[in-house]
């Protein structure tokens, strides 16, 4: 199937400015992906502003030099620096300067300075059925699944190109027929108390991602809506352990009023019946640290913490002093609320290190470990942190609930409370 561009799109592609470069990138990507056309989009979320090397900075600056501007609402994922000054980033020059130049280039392109991996909690919530071009795996899966907007997993630099031209390739999850579920992930065999717990959803997400890969599935057997933070945690873990861009939960997510309504055919191609034993194995797999009597840090906020999660954090700390730091990653939207309420100072006085604009697994913030110190131990309630932290930070991971993470930070040693699946 050949790509057909409109006369307007052809004219833009023929230009030698930044918009022309962006259109050529989008059009060539569409050809490679087998898309027959480009479609208009309502918004983008840009993942390409995180510094991975000088080429990314130079690419963004070339777009700026060419006079490019985003044509649709465009929020920014995390960068490599905490521009709010909440935490100390150990990125040295010249990388630090290049990272700052990159963040500035995206500002000049007209992107909103959101710097969060959870734009859907910062007011960027596209309408059900609308086409968008989002990057950042957890944001993509939340956008598709919980909001019911339509996006593929747009990679670095294609995302900003789509933003500039206001179009995206018409393929994949933009097509209604590709959003149907082909398998059922049945959790009806798990206890209601476990499904109602905070610890359940990152574990189930990690298991779901490993089981389904990049297939579209529907979760059955969930009796009550678990809340957006639980869905956020499920999707982030699923997109980390698998290539999940869309999930459905029968009776919870907007495209799946019930299992049969979202299936691609009269019967699913497979049914995965989740057992307590499968859950226990998945939960154990989120921890990489050997048995230990101490921990070095707690990290939470992947995806970024919501206002409600900060409420829980403050309630669980209950004014106590932490023995080890809690790195709490969040966006400016939540930070602003904390500052208005005077809660930032209270949390920091307890030993919480608030990390804004970025994240401890994408830029060096936590103390550096040397060979003489061995591996540090990081405790987290995030399935995504558990997946990426060992490779990105050098810390071994212990996975636990938020309540157990807080108690462990207060005591300086791991505390676990079992909730049977």
Automatic annotation (TrEMBL):
Instruction: Give the source lineage, highest ranks first.
Output: Bacteria, Pseudomonadati, Pseudomonadota, Alphaproteobacteria, Hyphomicrobiales
The segment(s) forming the Phosphomevalonate dehydratase large subunit-like domain are 4-407
Which is a Pfam family this sequence falls into? AcnX
Q: Which InterPro entries match?
A: PMDh-L-like_dom
Give the species this sequence originates from. Mesorhizobium plurifarium
Keyword entries, A-Z = Iron, Lyase
Q: What's a Gene Ontology MF term here?
A: lyase activity
Source organism, top-level taxon: Bacteria
**What protein does this entry describe?**
Phosphomevalonate dehydratase large subunit-like domain-containing protein
């Amino acid at each position: 199937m050949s790509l057909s561009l409109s006369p307007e799109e052809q004219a833009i592609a023929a230009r030698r400015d930044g918009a022309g470069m962006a259109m050529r990138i989008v059009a060539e990507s569409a050809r490679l992906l087998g898309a027959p056309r480009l479609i208009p989009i309502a918004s983008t979320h840009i993942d390409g502003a995180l510094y991975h090397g000088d080429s990314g900075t130079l690419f963004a600056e070339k777009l700026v030099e060419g006079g490019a501007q985003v044509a649709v609402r465009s929020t920014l994922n995390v960068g490599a620096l905490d521009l709010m000054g909440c935490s100390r980033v150990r990125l040295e020059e010249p990388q630090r300067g290049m990272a700052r130049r990159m963040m500035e280039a995206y500002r000049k392109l007209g992107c909103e300075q959101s710097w969060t991996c959870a734009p859907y909690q910062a007011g960027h919530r596209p309408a059900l059925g609308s086409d968008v071009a989002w990057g950042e795996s957890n944001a993509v899966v939340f956008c598709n699944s919980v909001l019911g907007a339509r996006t593929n997993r747009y990679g670095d630099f294609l995302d900003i190109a789509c933003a500039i031209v206001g179009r995206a390739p018409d393929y994949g999850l933009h097509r209604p027929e590709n959003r149907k579920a082909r398998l059922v992930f049945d959790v009806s065999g798990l206890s209601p108390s476990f499904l109602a717990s905070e610890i359940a959803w990152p574990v189930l997400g990690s298991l779901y991602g490993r089981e389904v890969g990049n297939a579209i599935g529907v979760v059955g057997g969930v009796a009550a809506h678990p809340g957006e933070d639980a869905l956020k945690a499920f999707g982030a873990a699923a997109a980390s352990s698998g290539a999940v861009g869309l999930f459905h939960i029968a009776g919870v997510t907007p495209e799946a009023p019930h299992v049969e309504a979202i299936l691609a055919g009269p019967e699913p191609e497979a049914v995965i019946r989740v057992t307590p034993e499968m859950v226990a194995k998945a939960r154990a797999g989120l921890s990489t640290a050997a048995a230990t009597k101490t921990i070095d840090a707690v990290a939470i906020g992947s995806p970024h913490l919501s206002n409600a999660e900060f409420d829980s954090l403050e309630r669980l700390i209950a004014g106590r002093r932490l023995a080890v730091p809690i790195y709490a990653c969040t966006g400016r939207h939540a930070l602003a609320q904390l500052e208005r309420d005077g809660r930032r100072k209270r949390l920091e006085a307890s030993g919480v290190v608030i990390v804004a604009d970025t994240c401890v697994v994408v830029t060096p913030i936590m103390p550096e470990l040397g060979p003489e110190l061995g591996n540090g131990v990081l405790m987290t309630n995030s399935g995504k942190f558990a997946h990426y932290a060992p490779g990105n930070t050098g810390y071994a991971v212990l996975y636990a609930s938020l309540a157990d993470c807080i108690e462990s930070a207060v005591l300086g040693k791991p505390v676990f409370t079992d909730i049977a699946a």
